[in-house]
Predict the 3D structure of the following.
Amino acid sequence: MLAASIPLALYVHWPWCVRKCPYCDFNSHALPPGGDEASRYIDALIADLLANKTLAGNRPLVSVFIGGGTPSLIAPAHLKRFLNALQKHFTLAPELEITLEANPGTVDTAHFQAYRLMGVNRLSMGIQSFDETLLKKLGRIHNRREALEAISIAQTYFDNFNLDVMYALPGQSLQALESDLKHAVAAQSTHLSFYQLTIEPHTVFAKHRPENLPDEDLIARMQDLVVGTLSDAGFDHYEVSGYAKPGHYCRHNLNYWQYGDYLACGAGAHSKITLPDGRILRQVRFVTPQSFMKHALEGNAVSRHRFVPKEDEAFEFMLNVLRLRKGVPLQLLEERTHLSVKDIETPIRQAQKLGLMDEPLTALVANAKGWDFLSDLQELFL
């Protein structure tokens, strides 16, 4: 394993949004009034970024993903200040992908134009649905008209943009999902992320479970409808929830699934870095915006860290790469971990015996049955 050859990305977390959605378990908070808090947070992000410089070494960043929260709330002047620091202190790959997440309820034409001019070249918008009733049930701050307007603005300034859409929503029918799929395809986006609604612990939906959630049979039919419709529309189902037009896979997420490295800055952000001596370091930042800002500005935003034990590497690696429809080459295991295929021979044989992976093994990949029972397959490598 040669650490210097492992691709390196950067995740930046913006923790604020207008209002937290009842299904959301991300580290997000309502944005405080006034602009001082946002400016101070950018100062903390830059301090955290610079603390990462030693870990980056000479490796260029292949992607930057600004997630949240609602990063489209960031004033262009604030984002420019952060990106200027990034450009000044880090080596950037020639084809650097910079993604910014946006909420249709916060879209501003001038902001989108400014983001594009300062180097953001990929947008990811949380549409979730085009159905007014379903949007209200999800607690979204935007409506159907605003979603369509946001898409129109995105089309104007971005050649490469993703839409997040959810299914298996409370009271959703197959016909309603068909309508959402029709609008999503018509948006002419290069990438679509279709997620099944799941009820996560510690969310409003966990405390007050919504009524009329689809049953397992309807969810399965919805999944088939999503896969079939998007395949017919020319999207490649390359990852569990990811569908892309040829040549437009999300580079940042692809780096995750291929067990690449990623720096992080921002409240609660996680990083994974392979050190020159081969150890894999994982870090977590202080979670709340206030605690993150305090510690980052004092020079240490990391609240905890650990080195990945060798016995955990197989599961971590396979948990990620098996999400990819085409898997990864056999040699990638040795290139990204301390292991070889021989080290995971036993679980592979179990998977083949259960019909979840093919024989002979030409790649680390699930077959059609393994894709349908992905969690069961991944657990074999624990």
